[in-house]
C-alpha cells in the first residue's frame, strides 16, 4: 500500500507535507484518497473527528510542494494570522518558457478577475486590481536553441527561484505569463485556454500533451519559513523531477 503522503514534519500542532502535483487540497466527493485533507483525516484517525485538521496554506491542484496543516482550529487561527500579516516567507521554483535575459527581476502588476473570459476561475492583470508583487531570480537557462523548426519558447527554458511578496490567486502563474514567460505545462495561462478546457472535458490529444511538454505545470513550493513559538521554522521540500531531468526527452 502506498503511503498517504510525503511527510516533512509533524508535532503536536502541525503537519507539514510535500504535496504531489495532481492532488487537490480540498475535500472531494470521490473518496478520502482524492484530496490532501481527506488523506490527512485518514492519517489522524479518531483524532480528526474531535479536532479536525485545517489547511493553513493551499496549493493549486497541479502545484507541488510544502503544505502546512494545523491539527486543530486554535492553531489554524494563530497560523492564519501569521500568513495574513505577511510574516511568512515563501519560495517557489518554476520552469518557464524562453530564456529570460535578466538574472533578477521584480514584477509589480495588479490582479483581478478576468471578466471577459468564459473560464470562471481565471484572473488577469488589470489596472483596478489588487496590488501584487513577485520577485524572481534565474537559477539557470536550459534547452536546445539549435532546433530550427520550433519557436524559441518551445526550445529554450529558464528555471526560476521565486519569492511572492503578496499572495493573490494564481499570482506567480499570471505574472510570469504577463512578462511573456509562462510556466511550462500551464493550461490556463500558457496562451491557449483550450488546453484547460480539454483537460476539464477529458479530451486532451497527444498533440496537445506534446505542446504542454509536462503533464502538470512546473511550479513547486520549495520552502516556507516563519517564526513560531519564538523559534524560526524552515520547512523545505525537494523539487520534482522536472528540475533535473531531461523533460523534453521523447516529446519533440
Topology:
Elements: E1 6-10, E2 14-19, H1 36-44, H2 46-50, E3 54-55, E4 64-70, H3 73-84, E5 89-97, E6 104-108, E7 111-113, E8 123-125, E9 133-143, E10 156-164, H4 171-178, H5 194-200, H6 206-212, E11 219-228, E12 231-236
Parallel strand pairs: 4-11
Antiparallel strand pairs: 1-2, 2-4, 3-4, 5-10, 5-11, 6-9, 7-8, 9-10, 11-12
Task: State the main characteristics.
252 residues; alpha+beta; Pseudouridine synthase; 2 domains; ten-stranded mixed β-sheet; two-stranded antiparallel ribbon; globular; disordered C terminus
What's the gist of this structure?
With 252 residues, the chain is of the alpha+beta class.
Verbal overview:
- The protein has 252 residues and is α+β, with helices and mostly antiparallel strands.
- The protein has 2 domains: 1-85, 2-Layer Sandwich (Pseudouridine synthase); 90-223, Pseudouridine synthase.
- It contains 6 helices and 12 strands.
Amino acid at each position: 500500500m502506498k503511503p498517504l503522503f510525503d511527510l516533512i514534519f509533524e508535532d503536536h500542532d502541525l503537519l507539514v507535507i510535500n504535496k504531489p502535483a495532481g492532488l487537490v487540497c480540498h475535500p472531494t466527493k470521490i473518496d478520502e484518497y482524492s484530496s490532501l485533507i481527506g488523506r490527512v483525516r485518514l492519517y489522524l484517525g479518531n483524532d480528526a473527528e474531535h479536532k479536525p485538521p485545517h489547511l493553513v496554506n493551499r496549493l493549486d491542484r497541479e502545484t507541488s510542494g510544502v503544505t502546512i496543516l494545523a491539527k486543530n482550529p486554535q492553531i489554524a487561527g494563530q497560523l492564519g494570522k501569521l500568513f495574513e500579516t505577511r510574516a511568512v516567507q515563501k519560495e517557489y521554483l518554476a520552469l518557464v518558457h524562453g530564456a529570460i535575459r535578466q538574472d533578477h527581476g521584480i514584477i509589480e502588476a495588479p490582479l483581478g478577475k478576468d471578466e471577459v473570459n468564459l473560464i470562471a476561475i481565471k484572473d488577469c492583470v488589470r489596472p483596478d486590481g489588487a496590488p501584487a508583487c513577485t520577485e524572481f531570480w534565474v537559477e539557470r537557462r536550459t534547452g536546445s536553441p539549435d532546433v530550427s523548426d520550433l519557436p524559441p519558447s518551445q526550445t529554450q527554458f529558464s528555471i526560476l527561484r521565486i519569492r511572492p511578496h503578496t499572495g493573490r490567486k494564481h499570482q506567480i502563474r499570471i505574472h510570469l505569463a504577463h512578462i511573456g514567460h509562462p510556466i511550462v505545462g500551464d493550461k490556463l495561462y500558457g496562451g491557449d485556454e483550450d488546453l484547460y478546457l480539454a483537460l476539464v472535458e477529458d479530451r486532451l490529444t497527444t498533440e496537445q500533451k506534446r505542446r504542454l511538454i509536462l503533464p502538470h505545470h512546473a511550479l513547486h513550493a520549495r520552502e516556507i519559513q516563519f517564526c513560531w513559538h519564538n523559534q524560526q521554522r524552515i520547512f523545505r521540500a525537494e523539487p520534482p523531477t522536472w528540475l533535473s531531468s531531461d523533460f523534453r526527452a521523447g516529446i519533440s
